[in-house]
Sequence to fold (426 residues):
Amino acid sequence: MRAQWILPACVMLLAANSARAEIPLHERKSGAEFMSPQTQAMQADDVSNPGMLAALDGEAFWKQKAGAANKACADCHGPAEESMKGVSARYPAFNASASKPIDVQGQVNQCRSERQQAAPFRFESRELLALTTYIGLQSRGMPVSPPDDERLTLFRERGKALFNQRLGQLNFSCAHCHEDNWGRKLGSAPIPQAHANSYPIYRLEWQDVGSLQRRLRNCMTGVRAEAYSYGSPEFIELELFLAARARGMSVETPGVRP
Amino acid sequence: MRMTGSRSRRLKSLARRWALAGLCLALAPCAHAAVLAPFEVAGDAIPQSLTGDKGDPARGRAIVVDRQKGLCLLCHSGPFAEQRFQGDIAPSLEGAGSRWSEGQLRLRLVDAPRLNRDTSMPSYYRIDGLNRVAPAFKGKPVLEAQQIEDVVAFLASLRETPTAQEKP
Fold:
């Protein structure tokens, strides 16, 4: 955060929608803290957390051979409990072969097409959500730890600018809601701080598991903006910024949300 | 300060003339057919009605509590006993008519960020300078001129109660 003072001036101008205060460290709260005790209990108990079913599915897909290579994820990576530990806490990360940052779902699909030689999973497909939930679960309880990788800096700063930029017919920025008004009520919904430490989530309103990008698309259509497309560079940039804002918070995947 | 010049008035009459013939399709981008009524800002107010007429407070109230049209109760609360969910991002609308003149209320609805750049109060009557508006809403203000006038008339009728007046 302190590094913002040494950023190139042009980036600062983009980001400087207003001199708004970021959320101080000691006031950071996970989205779960804004939920009713019942929904919190549902998330906390693996037997009642519906996201755990997706993780179980993911474990099955992890072991399933697929594609022209006829390889399972497990054939190369071994037990996910070891090889995937901490991965979701670290991502998005810079991917050398794509020479750009990618998130976990992007990495899964890269392995899917390049290593398994199979068709990539569709966004929000059962398989992709199951695998990313299963991979996310392997980081549960670990601190969000975005890498100090210089190659990510510019992308993360772009994400910050996107976060502070007004959007849509209602002309709101993410920060208007999540930094200026967290804890207050938007109609009936308490506004959380927008930490991405629990994704994929099971959302009761969706009656389904969904990715962080699905959540962000909901926020964008809420202000009558044209949402970015799944997998777009803007989403990866926003995800990088969200991860930096949540540095040190515990991964809670799979979260449950109202 | 004249906010929309003679150009947009020309466009407006053009739009009126051609709309019936369906030629709006040929006038790309069609969105510009929804030209805003011209208005003048004086100080922190828009003194003149956008339509030239007085609004209807009953219709205004219906717009204010409608979660698709006015959206006001997402952020505001107010004297609406029947509405269960009211927001607390913004000050209560109670007594708005005692605090502000109709002209001041009109500007606060039309384009609040002119008064406070950082406000989260949306601009209800503005179509330019917006970013990534979803296709269904492109080129349209959140409320039409008539609706703005109805809401202004309703807000102006919200008078401070004696107890609220005692507050600092």
